[in-house]
Amino acid sequence: MREVIQAQETFAYDPGMTAEQAYDVWAEVPPGLTVVAVSEGRVVGTAKMGANQAGPGSHVSTASFMVAADARGQGVGTSLCRFALSWAMERAYAGMQFNAVVESNTAAVRLYQRHGFTVIGTVPGAFAHPTLGRVGLHVMYYGFQS
Questions:
Q1: Rounded distance between C-alpha atoms, residue 17 and residue 5, angstroms
Q2: pLDDT digits (tens, 9 = 90+) for 14-68
Q3: Domain that holds residue 11
Q4: Which CATH number goes with the domain that contains 73?
Q5: Which of 55, 123, 125, 141 has the most beta carbons within 10 angstroms of its beta carbon?
Q6: How many domains in the chain?
Q7: Is the pTM above the cut of 0.85?
Q8: Contacts with 119 (C-beta within 8 Å, 6 or more apart), sequence order
């Protein structure tokens, strides 16, 4: 998590947050779930999933993913995304919504699109990328078949 957060390229988290603050932001409480992907005894990725909103919005799920830089392109993100989608479908959510996918994170956007997500809107300039300046944040959605 530290590596991804400090890069400031994909998550709008404070790069100076403590480990305890990161835990509080990332660790979902039940019925949500946080998981890790492990390869050769090392954590190479993590995902969290749960309801996107409370109350009247709780029938739509959400998820977030982080993959270590040296593990990207090896199927870790794909496995985490598939797991999150299965988890949500098993719990009868109507769909999954991602609220803030950085548009310059093209690998993630393509991954989500391969799994059926569509960009339903983009907030222009909503993310301050460290080298690209202000870029858009996509809202992406995938509706589950009944």
A1: 9
A2: 999 999 999 999 999 999 999 999 999 999 999 999 999 999 999 999 999 999 9
A3: 2-143
A4: 3.40.630.30
A5: 141
A6: 1
A7: yes
A8: 101, 109, 113, 138, 139, 140
